[in-house]
């Protein structure tokens, strides 16, 4: 089974990139801080300082071991050590600095399109071009532990059941897995149902 990896923004902080810091380190023309396109940065990468902030839910949030934003995963040292052997085959692990610690941003470079893995019959967008549903030919993407797709403009990160199991066995906190691939947002259990008038 394929899962969408979603940040648990209700219970955990998420990483924030400073555009000035990113451009100072990677060059004035870089768009790394907001462009999720699968571009390799390994040749120009210099470790950048990142911050963490609460993006949703209550006022407080814990530090994640692993989280997702803009098509990239943050990993603390524990997550890096647990997942490195799998992730290194599917992208690049770029060192970052936070709270006097070293972490990593995983930039996934494996794409469903490279194996014609998007099921075009079951994947749809609405009239605004926004993702409505997404399906993959699982037999074609079976060699990808983690991958992305152009169909959602590289915003989502998808994974195999084996990767999900690896994260769960390592006890890594900060993400959730969703089998509804067309929904790139984790539900907020604190949100209230709309009231009828």
Q: Can you describe what's shown?
A:
By secondary structure, the protein is of the alpha+beta class. The chain has a domain at 2-110 and 160-178. 14% of the residues lie in helices and 28% in strands. The chain contains 3 helices and 12 strands, in the order ββαβββαββββββαβ. It has a 6-stranded mixed β-sheet. A 4-stranded antiparallel β-sheet has the order 10-11-1-12. It has a two-stranded antiparallel ribbon with strand order 8-9. A hairpin with a 2-residue loop joins β4 and β5. 32% of the residues are buried.
What sequence of helices (H) and strands (E) makes up the elements? EEHEEEHEEEEEEHE
How would you write the strand order of the largest sheet? 2-3-6-7-5-4
**In terms of structural class, how would the helical and strand content be classed?**
alpha+beta
Silhouette: globular
Averaged pLDDT? 90
Features:
12 strands; four-stranded antiparallel beta sheet; disordered C terminus; alpha+beta; 14% helix
Topology:
Blueprint: E1 2-7, E2 14-17, H1 19-26, E3 48-53, E4 66-69, E5 72-75, H2 77-87, E6 91-98, E7 101-108, E8 124-125, E9 131-133, E10 146-147, E11 157-160, H3 161-169, E12 175-178
Parallel strand pairs: 3-6
Antiparallel strand pairs: 1-11, 1-12, 2-3, 4-5, 5-7, 6-7, 8-9, 10-11
